[in-house]
Amino acid sequence: MKKIFLIMTAICIASCSSNLEDLNRNTKDPAAVSGESLFTGAQKALVDQVVHINVNENNTKLWSQFLQETTYTDESNYDQVTRTIPENLWSAMYRDALKDLDEAGKIITETTYLTDEINALKPNKLNIIEILKVYAYSHLAETFGDVPYSESLNIEILSPKYDDGITIYKDLISRLTTAISNLDDSKDSFGSNDNIYKGDVASWIKFANSLKLRMGMLLADADDTYAKTTVESAIAGGIITSSAENTNMQYGSSAPNTHPVHTEAILSGRDDFVAGATLIDLMNTLNDPRRPLWFQTVGGDYIGGEIGSPSTYSSHSPMSEQVVAATAPGVIFSYSEMQFLLAEGAERGYATGDTAANHYNAAITASIDEWGGSAADAATYLAQPSVDYATLIGTQPWRQVIGTQKWISLFNRGPEAWTSIRVFDFPILATPTEAVSGFPNRYTYPIVEQTINATNYNAAASAIGGDLAETKLFWDKF
Fold first, then answer.
1. Residue spans of alpha helices (H) in 24-98
2. Which residues of 336-375 are buried (b: 16+ CB within 10 A; e: fewer)?
3. How many Cα atoms sit within 13 Å of 354 on the Cβ side?
4. Closest Cα to residue 265, out of 69, 417, 445, 3?
5. Which of 429, 288, 403, 396 is nearest to 340 (CA)?
6. Taking a C-beta distance cutoff of 8 angstroms, is the pair 328, 340 a contact?
7. Residue 226: which of 215, 234, 216, 213 has the closest Cα?
8. What's the domain of life for this entry (predicted)?
9. What's the burial of 28, exposed, middle or buried (CB within 10 Å: 0-12/13-18/19+)?
10. What is the arithmetic mean of pLDDT over 340-365?
C-alpha cells in the first residue's frame, strides 16, 4: 500500500508540475509568428503611413493644399516640430514596415512548409517582400534625402550611417529589376495574406515595373540618360495599363481595419479638415467634374478654407462620403498616375508609345473614371480651352500643363502629390498665413537622431546642404 502511495505521489508531482507550467503559458498567443502574418501586418503599416491624414503621422495632404485644418493650423503652416512628425514617420517606416518585412523574409526563408507545392511559392513571396522594401526605402529617400540604408536593418549597429540619396535610389532600382526578373507568374504567392493583389504575381510584376518607371522619371532632371533607360526598360517589362490594375490596399468595414482617413474623419468624432482653397478655387475655375466626388457643398457652393488659417467646418466644404468611406481603397499607384508619368516622359523624348497629349487625355479621363465620373464628364472637361492640351501648350510650359492636372488628379494621394509639386514646381501654391518655413521640400530629420546618432546625423545634414525644410533633395534640380 505504501509503495502504491509513493508511486501515485510521484505521478502527481510530475503531472502537477506540468500543469503548473501550462497555467503560465498564454494559450491565446502563438508560440511563433509566421512570415506570412508579418508580411500582412507590414503591408498594412506601410500603406497606412502613405495614405494617412493624421497630423501626427503625415502632413503631405496639407502641404499639397488639398485640405485645410479647421482649428489647429500648425501643420498647414509647415510646422514639423511641435508634434515631432518626422520622428513618427521615420519610426513607422523603419520599425513597423521595413523591419517587419525584413523579418518576414527571414522567417519564410527558414520555414519548411508541409508540401513541395507550398515550398515552391517561397521565391515569389521573398521577391514581393523585396518590392515592398524598395517602395518603403524610396519613400524615405524622397521624403528626407540621405537616410540610413546599408546599415539600417542591422540590429548590431545602433548608430547606422546615412547613405547618399541618389546612390540609394539607383541601388533600389537595381534591386527592383532583379526582383521583377525573379518573379514567376505561373505560381501563386501570399494568397489571402496579401491585401493588395491577393497573391497574384502577374499584378505584382506590373506594379514593380510601374514603380520602376516612376522612380526613373523622378531622376530625369538629375540624370536624364539613366532615367530614359530605366523608364523604357520598365515599359518593356510590362506596366499598369488600366485602372483595374491599380495598386490598392483593400480596407475593411470595421475598426481597426478601416481606411485611415475614415478613422480620422469619422471614427474620431472630430471635424478637423475641410477642402483647401488652393484646390477648390482652381476646380471651380475649371468646372472640374470631380468636385462632387471629393467634396460636399455649403449652400450649393464649393468653398475651400484659407491655407494656414482656422476654417470653420460648417462654413467650408467637407470631404465627400466616398473619400471618407471605411472601405475606400488605399491607393499607392494608379493608371491615371501612370499616364501622367508617360506624358512627362513623352515631353522629355522618351519612347512611351504615344504622344504627350494622348497620355495627358488618358490620364485625366482615367482619374475621373476612377472616382466614379462618366466618360461624358471627362470629354466635356477636356474640351475646355483651360484644360485642352494643344491650347495650353501654346502658352504654357509643359511642366505647368502636366504638373497642374497631375496634382489635381493626385487628390487624397498626399506623398505623390507633394512629390509632383516638387518635380514640376506647379501649381503655384498659396503662402500659408502663418508659415514657419518656406515650402517644405523635405521632412527635417527626427530630433532624436541628433542625440542618439549625432555623428552620422551631422554628416548627413552637411552632405545634403543643411537639415532644413527648404533644402532641395538629390532629384529636385529646378
1. 35-51, 60-63, 85-91
2. bbbbbbbbbbbbbebebeeebbbbbbbbbbbbbbbbebee
3. 16
4. 69
5. 403
6. no
7. 216
8. Bacteria
9. exposed
10. 98
Q: Give yes or no for a contact between 319 and 275, defined as CB atoms under 8 angstroms apart.
A: yes
Which H helix or E strand runs over 313? none
Give the β-pairing of 330-333 and 247-249: antiparallel
CA angle 29, 34, 40 (to 5 degrees): 100
What is the reported pLDDT for 31?
A: 54
Quick one: average pLDDT of 268-284? 97
- Is the peptide bond preceding residue 432 cis, with omega within 30 degrees of 0? no
- Per-domain boundaries in the chain: 35-69+84-255+327-464
Long-range contacts of 255-260 (CB under 8 A, 24+ apart): 257/44, 258/326, 258/327, 259/51, 259/324, 259/325, 259/326, 259/327, 259/328, 259/329, 259/330, 260/48, 260/51, 260/52, 260/53, 260/54, 260/330
In tens, the pLDDT along 423-438 reads 999 999 999 999 999 9
DSSP, residue by residue, 171-230: HHHHHHHHHHHH--TTS--SGGG-TTTTT-HHHHHHHHHHHHHHHHHHTTTT-HHHHHHH
The half-sphere exposure of 322 on its side-chain side, counting CA atoms within 13 A, is 13
> Cell 521615420 appears where?
90
- The one-character DSSP state at 54 is -
The mean pLDDT of the chain is 94
Query: What number does CATH give the domain 35-69+84-255+327-464?
Result: 1.25.40.390
